[in-house]
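Lecture 7 notes. Example A: sequence first, then its structure tokens.
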Amino acid sequence: MGTIQGKVVLVTGAAGGIGAAAALLFATEGAQHVALADRDGERLGTAAETVREAGGSASTHVFDVTDEPAVAKWIDDVVAAQGRIDCAFNNAGINLPSTPFHEMEREVFEEVIAVNLTSVFLCLKHELRQLVTQGGGGAIVNTSSGAGLVPAPGQPHYTAAKHGILGLTRQVAREYLRHGIRCNAILPGITDTPMLRGGGDELTDRARDGLRRFSPIGELLEPADVAATAVWLCSDAARRINGQSIVVDGGGILH
């Protein structure tokens, strides 16, 4: 029996990196169904096929997580097909080039806030709506970052968003405790994802700098390293863990 046996799971940012790794792990840990969401339909289809090849059930949902009607429809469609939801991993996010605070354009700031923070609010809102409607219970995990605890140089938008996710996480954990709904956050360190590599094969300059400063062993984390914590937090083994922010970075934040 897997740790997620029989559960219906939602994953955003599932086309690659941590999201795709989590979708696969949810499936191999016994999920009844994994609903993968992302705006990159081609890569999302590849991630879903990987889940199916591993023996899991997966569906793909292509939309923008900052679009509230689309978020609501996603959850309603999954419930129509599966009857309920049990777990959600709100993982979608972007990162843009570093800019000195005094040179950052408002439009750039607002774009990162929208994708990295407002989208989490929207997903939480409609996940909670469904979980409460179906009688309570369930587990939600939000992806923050080490930048949720310490500032990321040249990244005021990213730092603000990732700090904000911790606030939303604690709000949900406190407010929905009486419904039996748990909500926690994970804070990954420097992880080998397509976003970190700027969509190519080579690390970005920012990633290399981060490795020098924040990795105690000078190596990137693998997406599966982070995904394992998200899946565990959704499992019954973590049933007493609520409102927590768990750093997954090999100790890098201590440096």
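Example B, a different protein, same format:
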Amino acid sequence: MSNIHSIHDLEVYRLAFEAAMDVFHTTRTFPPAERYGLTDQLRRSSRSVAANLREGFAKRRYSGLFARHITDALGSAEETRTHLDFAVACGYLPEKVHAEISNKYDRIAAMLFRLLQRWT
């Protein structure tokens, strides 16, 4: 991992940021009644993945702290997927969009798991 100097060198961070932006743009079409409900929850959990990665990276010299933040990022990724499922069930999100974003979170989760195994 010696060639990693910045959080932006981690592909998983770039993908998590991109996925959070996908969620942001997608939720702009959700009904106003969901502003403080599903929309807010989806945006927060999706952003939490990238935020936990960045915070963990800043503390990477302390393997226990790093591992905790990566584990939290994994949890936030799964929380996001749950909210995406609700969005489909409520009729706010087309299945195709759900599949595209969910596939990104599959990749993110796998990358986080590998990162956790290799770095700690």
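Note on Example B: The mean pLDDT is 94. The two ends are 11 Å apart (CA to CA).
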